[in-house]
Specification:
The protein is built from seven helices and 19 strands. It is α+β, with helices and mostly antiparallel strands and 366 residues long. Strands 2, 3, 4, 5, 6 and 7 form a six-stranded antiparallel beta sheet that branches.
């Protein structure tokens, strides 16, 4: 890409104007359907940035730039394993370039207001062109599942987790709730204890020419530990008040072959499909985050069955003016399992979420 001298000079002047003072995109200057590029893709090319959120005003009624920047700065320091340092609120709010005790320089992009929340973006010092790309205004991203828009909704990336959060009573916490929900899924996959009992009964009556089958399942899937997985928010979109984020885990991705989803064993490990929402099933809170969690747990239960299952059978045969047969089975599972999420597909039917997940048995299966 070629730039003439005038374009390059103008770019430097634009960036320099934000390097020494606080610059905020005011509400009157923003269009409701437009957002800075960093708000849609906080990770872009070689630029890794972090979004912080805060209520628009602080307790003194001032625009809460310091609050949102502090939230973004803490994420950046955690990711790069810098010591968490307390920065004066006035200093945070008044400068777009901050020198840390570690010697690193942090850049803050102009703030973005959306639905009563102020968002800040922090990244380590980048070249001028990379920073200008992240400031470019772009359309707010609406999740369109059938159209695979954005494309990451349909990408098969084995080192990512989808984290979601519905519009909360405290909107500035929605982004952090999405990450917490993603971390919950990562905890379940990392190491879970599965307790499950299934009851199946069958009966036949020749007089009435009737055959009935009933099924009941009781299960409890719980993560063994709450861990910090070091995930990064890569991209996000929104669907009817639900924030959906694509979080990247610091693990190697798995190269997937054609038609991998149809295989029961992949790379010498069990491949399980879990689901929730089919047949009109709905969660008690109707939330997408709950539907994803239940689909993951469904896959982990099936994975535990492969590891070990205890079966009890009881059959009865009797004659009472005809032939009658009754069979009762009880299957019990109590196993520790771990897996890797290979793919997740989300759709909606009559505004109710349908979730399908594919989980690969972990190499270090417990």
């Amino acid at each position: 890409m070629k730039f003439n001298l005038f374009s390059f000079t103008l770019l430097l002047i634009t960036l320099a104007s934000t390097s020494g003072c606080n610059t905020t995109l005011g509400l009157k200057k923003q269009q409701t359907n437009r957002a800075p590029h960093w708000f849609i893709k906080p990770v872009h090319n070689q630029t890794i940035g972090f979004i912080g959120a805060a209520a628009k005003y602080d307790s003194l009624g001032r625009v809460n730039v310091a609050g949102s920047r502090k939230a973004a700065l803490v994420k950046l320091q955690n990711h790069h394993q810098f010591a968490i340092t307390e920065i004066d609120a006035k200093q945070l709010a008044s400068t777009a370039k901050l020198k840390l005790p570690s010697g690193n320089t942090v850049r803050f992009m102009p703030e973005f207001f959306y639905q009563g929340v102020i968002y800040s973006y922090a990244t380590l010092e980048q070249d001028a062109f990379a920073l200008s790309q992240q400031q470019t205004l772009t359309s707010l991203s609406t999740c369109q599942f059938k159209q695979c828009n954005p494309t990451w909704l349909c990408d098969e990336q084995a080192n990512t987790i989808t984290g979601v959060s519905f519009y909360t009573s405290t909107p500035h916490q929605q982004l952090s709730m999405a990450q917490q929900n993603a971390n919950l899924i990562a905890n379940l996959l990392s190491n879970s204890q599965v307790h499950a009992t299934e009851f199946i009964s069958q009966s036949s009556d020749t007089n009435s020419n009737r055959h009935t089958v009933s099924f009941n399942q009781q299960s409890n899937v719980k993560a063994k530990a709450d861990q910090h997985h070091g995930m990064i928010l890569n991209e996000l979109c929104e669907y009817h008040g639900t924030l959906i984020g694509n979080f990247v885990l610091p693990i190697n991705s798995i190269e997937l072959e054609d038609n991998w989803q149809s295989q029961a064993v992949y790379q010498d490990r069990s491949l399980i499909q879990g689901s929730f929402g089919h047949g009109g099933a709905i969660s008690s809170d109707l939330l997408l985050s709950t539907a994803i969690e239940l689909a993951i747990k469904d896959a982990l239960i099936e994975l535990a069955k492969i590891k070990g299952i205890a079966i009890e059978n009881n059959s009865t045969l009797s004659f009472n003016d005809g032939f009658y047969f009754l069979s009762k089975s009880k299957m019990t599972v109590n196993e520790q399992v771990s897996g890797q999420l290979l793919d997740i597909k989300i759709s909606y039917k009559k505004e109710n979420p349908i979730v399908n997940v594919w989980v690969l048995e972990a190499n270090n299966q417990l």
